[in-house]
Amino acid sequence: MKRPLVVTDCDEVLLHMVRHFRDWLDEAHDIEFNLEGNPLVQSMRRKDSGEVLGMDEAWGMLGGFFDTQMDKQDPIAGSVEAIAELQREADVVVLTNLVDERNEARRRQLQALGITAPVYTNQGPKGGALSRIVDEHAASRVVFIDDIAKHHESAAEEVPHVHRLHFCGEPTIAPHIPCALEAGHAHARIDNWAEALPWVLETLHGDKR
Q1: Of 31, 75, 133, 182, which residue is 20 to 30 A from 46 by alpha carbon distance?
Q2: Partners of 44 in the beta sheet?
Q3: CATH number of the domain at 5-16+74-204, out of 3.40.50.1000, 3.40.50.11750, 3.20.20.70, 3.40.30.10?
Q4: How far apart are CA 79 and CA 201, in angstroms?
Q5: Which stretch of DSSP H or E encloses residue 144?
Q6: Is residue 104 within 8 Å of residue 118, measured between CB atoms?
Q7: Torsional class of 78: left (φ above 0), alpha (ψ -120 to 50), beta (otherwise)
Q8: How, if at all, do strands 31-33 and 44-46 pair?
Q9: Residue 104 class from Cβ within 10 Å (0-12 exposed, 13-18 middle, 19+ buried)?
Q10: 3, 28, 99, 116: which is closest to 59 by C-alpha?
C-alpha cells in the first residue's frame, strides 16, 4: 500500500511571509501595508502621499519580495519539527503559489531551514495541481494544508476525497481571512502546529472521517 501523503502550502503555514513583506515595504519602499484583511488584495499606500498602489504595482512588489527577501523568512513555530514528524509516516510535498522560475529558490529556502521536500509551484486555484499530485503519488490517504480559503474550495471541487485543513500561522491575519471551515470547504481549521500535527496524524491513520 502506498504511503499517506501530505500536501502543504508554504507561506503562513511553514514560513512567515506577510510580516516580512510588510516590514520590507515600509523600510525599502516607504509603503504602508495593513495586515488586517486578505493580505494579497488589500491596499498598499505610499506613506508620503496616501496614494493606493494599483494591482499591477502591488503584484510587482510581491514579486520583488520573493526575488530578494526570501532569506529573511523564518519558520512558523513548530513547523519544521511537525514536517519532520510527518515525514516519518507519510510523503510530504510543498504546493506553493509562486511562478515556476522560483521553484528552486523555494526548495533551497526550505532546505536551509530544515525542511527537505519536493516543491510544486502553481498559479491560481490549487485544485488542479493538487489533483495531479494526488494521482502521481496514488496515496492511501491525503491531507491538504493551506491558509487561503479559495484553495480549499478548489480542492473540494477537484479532489473531494482529500482531507483539508485550513491553517494560518500568522496571528495578525488569521482572524481576518475568510474561513474555509465555515464555508464548508475544509474539514478543520487549526492555526498552530501544536494542535494541527495531532489532527493530521490522526487523519493519516484513518481515525478522522
Answers
A1: 75
A2: 33
A3: 3.40.50.1000
A4: 14
A5: strand 142-146
A6: no
A7: left
A8: antiparallel
A9: exposed
A10: 99
CA atoms 190, 195, 197, 202: torsion sign: negative
Cell numbers for 33, please give them: 501595508
- Provide the residue count of the chain: 209
Would you kindly state where each structural domain of the chain is located, as residue ranges?
5-16+74-204, 18-72
pLDDT by residue for the chain (209 residues), tens only, comes to: 689 999 999 999 999 999 999 999 999 999 998 876 555 556 788 999 988 888 889 889 999 999 999 999 999 999 999 999 999 999 999 999 999 999 999 999 999 999 999 999 999 999 999 999 999 999 889 999 999 999 999 999 999 999 999 999 999 899 989 999 999 999 999 999 999 999 999 999 875 54
Task: Give the ranges where 39-119 is alpha helix by DSSP (H).
Answer: 55-68, 79-87, 103-112
Query: In whole angstroms, what is the distance from residue 195 CA to residue 209 CA?
Result: 18
